[in-house]
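Supplementary Text 2. Reproducibility record for the structural model of the 525-residue chain.

All settings were left at their defaults, and a single model was retained for analysis rather than an ensemble. We include the record here because the model underlies the residue-level annotations in Supplementary Table 4.
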Amino acid sequence: MRPPYWNPQIELSQAEQSIISKIKKAKLFIFLRHNRHHLFDEEFQAELTIMFKDSTVGYCPVSPAQLALALILQAYTGVSDDEVIEALVMDRRWQLVLDCHDCQKPPFSKGTLVNFRQAMIEFGVDHRLIERTVEIAKERGGFGSSNLRAALDSSPLWGAARVEDTYNLLGHALRKAVRLMAQACEQTIAEIAQETQIDNVVTETSLKAALDLNWDDPTERSYALEVILSALNNIESHVEKKTANQQLSPVVETLQVARQIQSQDVTIDSQGQPILNKGVAKHRRISIEDSQMRHGRKSRSQRFNGYKRHVLRDLDMGIVRAVGITAANVPESEVTEAIDSDLKAQNVKMVELHIDRAYLPSHWVKQRSQDLTIFCKAWPVRNGDRFTKTDFVLDWEHSLIRCPNNVTIPFEQGKTVHFPASECHVCPIYERCTTSARGRSISIHPDEAFMQELRQRQDTESGRAKLRERSQVEHTLAHLGQWQGDRARYLGARKNLFDLRRVAVIHNLHVIARMSPPAFSQQVS
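Retained model, structure tokens:
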């Protein structure tokens, strides 16, 4: 039988008023106490209840609304799962929000909290938390338009797992494989290492410490790779002899990770010696524990390892409409389809999109309709003190380009046009145009008309004012970073997407609290 929906008291008790009067900071607790019944109304609770239903034991006796609130507060305070359970019996602020005053026993266990979070991730319901705050913002802020003006930007999110070089990655994989094999075979690590004759590799926590070589010597580095690959072969042979043991599948998976690293980072030279590859493989694995972390760049000089977080801010309401997570090496433009999928559930039509140039290859730009206006700084055109591309006239009707000396030739978008050298050499303004003996060339962007539109817009005062609106999403990213931090909380992109979504909920609740009447009753800081 379905349990009753969570229906906590709306009016403040005398004890609650006393607690609220003592909260000077972290006022989201006060806000949620006043408005939890708005955020988790009966309809939304029904969605969460159905999601969390376990078909083998029926409905969970714990209210999903309480669990969802606990997950929001966890992100707000930055505590662990164990600390959540502790706070339920030790922190009056948590008890205030979750309606468990002076409880000696927490209303739910750590396992229930973990299972609920996993259910939200598996069923993809975590985006509904953002959608619910959007619904409330529309209702309370009086925004009825279905046209969306939004800004999109990203920031680095360092991965939670350890990043290692090739030697230590392989050593980490070997130690993990031996540990898992020892558990499966009910033996000690030392016994497995001795049986496979790799005790010289896994006896230390660091492979480099175990081998104790001169790592500045290329010969010794090559020797180290030989030892590591030999140990890998020995473990694989040992596993093959124990194929009847079904518990060895985690060992096999770990060895496959080691082989993946070998294929990306190691090659065999002409003398048959293993050496490290020059350069970095396109999707090189950088961590044993987190397979999705990657090397990335925020700029030419700033590198990071992990993920990128993407945030789409509503420029009218100030709330976050959708978020995304990608590996650090993935182009920004690849996240837009996932964000667009979240937006479709909100029944809005994008009419303005403010982005930086990294998102220009996105599907929103390539497949844009006449109703969508893109605001972005165009790629700069530079040629020193000589004529730039903007000094050339493009005739789109006839696909012709005319130079400042009125020489006209055909052009195709996405290709480079070359003016005849014979014309350039006799041109009276040749020196003001190019120094090339082959004559002037102009690169035509595949979407050159759009580039021209962007340049024309940023040359106007109103256009530059529009471009400055994108700074709002940069402020939002900084705001989210206050709670999520610069380092990921979880391993894997999907769990970190969940974390980013609940942090976006916290941001939205702050925005809703600042809305003018009929907004929620208590502001937060």
